[in-house]
Amino acid sequence: MCDQCLITKEMIIDNLQKNYFVNYYQPIVNVKENIINGVEVLLRLKNPLLDNVCPECFIACAENENVINDLFFFSAEQAIKDISNNKSFNKLSINLSPKTLNVPNLYSWLKDKCNKYDIKKESVTLEITENVEYVETDISLENIENLRMLGFGLSIDDFGTGYSSYSRLKSMPFTELKIDKMFIKHIKTNNSDKKIIEHLVNLAQILGLQTVAEGIEDLETYHIIKNLGVNLCQGYFFHKPMAINDVLAL
């Protein structure tokens, strides 16, 4: 988080109303076939009157001030609409705060948006973020059960950091395990990180989960990840987050 980004709840609401929030998309690569498999949605604030505002700052503020749901619904609908223009993508990953899981009928809203824009529900994966703790309620359980029943994927984001744990992995019907970039960054020189990733890949295979590694920044790291059996990966080595038109041009 950047100390210089003094974001408030009022600023978030104002910028949302003025359409200064925009979606960027980072391609996700299928390791085995070495092709773009899909994209992850990354929300950005592009107000010309503000300096670069780091996403961690406005996301943290939105979580603390309980406006994270507003950002999710804006970003998710825009992403589903954007990707409907390119049916070749097999995967659309959307970050989802644990707080949003407690919005009544979240599953129905997502189902309706996929139907509206003719997107397969099976192609949408919701990445449960780790910046706040998940509080289990009847509403969250209903959403999770129905999301999986409808075919949506559930990813445990940044496993091994934040609030993620084996207990959460056990309690939710996840379809994907996402390996945090902190384990990727020094994998070329740190054998412990390599062993951790190897363990996570084996764990995911036992549980029938797909694995995604983020933060791939060079060819050697990519080769190591590939040899460890990771299914999907993303990072600056392939593509930085980009505007939708640039993604579609790929």
Could you give the topology of this structure?
Elements lengths: L8 H9 L3 E10 L4 E11 L9 H10 L3 H16 L7 E6 L9 H11 L7 E5 L9 H13 L2 E7 L6 H6 L4 E4 L11 H17 L2 E5 L4 H9 L4 E3 L9 H6 L1
Parallel strand pairs: 2-3, 3-4, 4-5, 5-6, 6-7, 7-8
Antiparallel strand pairs: 1-2, 1-8
Concise description?
Residues 5-250 form the EAL domain. The protein has 250 residues and is α/β, with parallel strands linked by helices. The protein is built from nine helices and eight strands.
Q: What features would you describe in this structure?
A:
The chain is an alpha/beta fold and 250 residues long. It has one domain: EAL domain (TIM Barrel, Alpha-Beta Barrel), CATH 3.20.20.450. The chain is 39% helix and 20% strand. It is built from nine helices and eight strands. The chain has helices at 9-17, 55-64, 68-83, 106-116, 138-150, 166-171, 191-207, 219-227, 244-249, and strands spanning 21-30, 35-45, 91-96, 124-128, 153-159, 176-179, 210-214, 232-234. Strands 1-2-3-4-5-6-7-8 form an eight-stranded mixed β-barrel. Helix 4 (106-116) packs parallel to helix 5 (138-150). The protein is globular, with a radius of gyration of 18 Å. The two termini are 31 Å apart. The model has no long low-confidence stretch (mean pLDDT 91).
For this structure, the CATH topology is: TIM Barrel
Give the H and E element order.
Answer: HEEHHEHEHEHEHEHEH
Q: How much beta, percentage-wise?
A: 15-25%
Which CATH class is shown?
Alpha Beta
Pfam families: EAL (PF00563)
Domain EAL: 5-250
Protein name: EAL domain-containing protein
